[in-house]
């Protein structure tokens, strides 16, 4: 799931060149994957396709399109292959997908090999692990060490097939099962993912209990051996935007977020949602940073998907913009 994420980048990539400006912040939109995968209802493929296309038109360049996981465990992600085939592909937009194991990678590679699309259906996968054995067992039925051992050949094969690999690490500040997590453990898992070939590692405060001071301490510790570049955050305790701004002030330049605050982690007690992309974009723009995202179009997309799946839009900025539009429309009718 989406976690408050602190992402570290190893080496130079195409994206680093694109986001070299000190005021440019890259937004990774995870709503279509992390957000929708936790909905109780099955979201139709055409709705997922429309959501991804709308997000692209709003200016987002990195959109998680789905997950190659067993439909037995995550039925909401069934049909990811069809979604990848149907979305509007552009050289300017990346559509990473979550791949938890070799079986999932096999499915993705078969899809890519059979595709006749002029543009690649995707050029990136994401893999995930955690800092605590308790959460790792709840999420993947194995220890952290076993998880990393299983991921190594997946990452190696994906890279040899020409795919970029991004790593996610859960529980970087507090684990609901084991309590406070030592920064040294976070650093250890991060380094292992980077060493196996991940170009980024996204570290997540999954239950969202971290404060800006916690994130500052985390950054200071982990960046002693790894270069910091990006962050995304989760809003369970209402601190996500503050944590994002703290990290950005320290040099972080990528933020993971979910339109309308879609999402939540079923394996993490207390994790109720993700930071809304609208709220992050508004805070960044208001602080002088650039994202390339059209906030008005993004907010409209947030309300559209919320209405489609029958849930509340938890974006504070989205609701404020909608209220402003309603007031303006009322004045025009008077």
From TrEMBL:
Pathway: Metabolic intermediate metabolism; (S)-3-hydroxy-3-methylglutaryl-CoA degradation; acetoacetate from (S)-3-hydroxy-3-methylglutaryl-CoA: step 1/1
BP term (GO), one: ketone body biosynthetic process
Chain segments annotated as transmembrane: none
Key words, A-Z: Lyase, Metal-binding
Enzyme Commission designation: 4.1.3.4
Catalyzed reactions per annotation: (3S)-3-hydroxy-3-methylglutaryl-CoA = acetoacetate + acetyl-CoA
InterPro entries for the chain: Aldolase_TIM, HMG_CoA_lyase_AS, HMGL, PYR_CT
Pyruvate carboxyltransferase domain residues: 25-299
UniProt GO molecular function: hydroxymethylglutaryl-CoA lyase activity; metal ion binding
First-tier enzyme category under EC: lyase
Pfam families the record matches: HMGL-like (PF00682)
Family (UniProt): Belongs to the HMG-CoA lyase family.
Name recorded for this polypeptide: hydroxymethylglutaryl-CoA lyase
Source organism (scientific name): Sistotremastrum suecicum HHB10207 ss-3
Classification of source organism: Eukaryota, Fungi, Dikarya, Basidiomycota, Agaricomycotina
């Amino acid at each position: 799931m989406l976690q408050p994420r602190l992402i570290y980048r190893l080496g130079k990539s195409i994206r680093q060149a694109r986001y070299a400006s000190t005021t440019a912040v890259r937004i990774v939109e995870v709503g279509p994957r992390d957000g929708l995968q936790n909905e109780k209802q099955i979201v139709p493929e055409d709705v997922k396709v429309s959501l991804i296309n709308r997000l692209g038109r709003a200016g987002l360049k990195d959109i998680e399109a789905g997950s190659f996981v067993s439909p037995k465990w995550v039925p909401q992600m069934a049909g990811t292959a069809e979604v990848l085939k149907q979305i509007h592909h552009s050289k300017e937009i990346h559509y990473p997908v979550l791949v938890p194991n070799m079986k999932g990678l096999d499915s993705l590679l078969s899809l890519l090999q059979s595709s006749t699309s002029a543009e690649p259906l995707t050029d990136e996968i994401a893999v995930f692990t955690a800092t605590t054995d308790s959460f790792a067992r709840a999420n993947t039925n194995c220890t952290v060490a076993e998880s990393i051992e299983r991921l190594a050949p997946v990452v190696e094969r994906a890279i040899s097939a020409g795919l970029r690999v991004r790593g996610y690490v859960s529980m970087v500040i507090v684990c609901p099962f084991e309590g406070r997590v030592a920064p040294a453990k976070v650093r250890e898992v991060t380094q292992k993912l980077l060493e196996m070939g991940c170009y980024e590692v996204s570290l997540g405060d999954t239950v969202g209990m971290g404060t800006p001071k916690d994130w500052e301490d985390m950054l200071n510790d982990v960046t002693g051996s790894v270069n910091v570049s990006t962050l995304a955050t989760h809003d369970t305790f209402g601190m996500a935007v503050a944590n994002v701004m703290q990290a950005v002030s320290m040099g972080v330049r990528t933020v993971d977020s979910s339109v309308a605050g879609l999402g939540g982690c079923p394996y993490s007690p207390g994790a109720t949602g993700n930071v809304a992309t609208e709220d992050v974009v508004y805070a960044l723009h208001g602080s002088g940073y650039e994202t390339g995202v059209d906030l008005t179009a993004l907010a409209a997309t947030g309300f559209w998907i919320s209405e489609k799946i029958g849930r509340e839009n938890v974006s504070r900025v989205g609701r404020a913009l909608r209220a402003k539009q309603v007031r303006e429309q009322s004045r025009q009718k008077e």
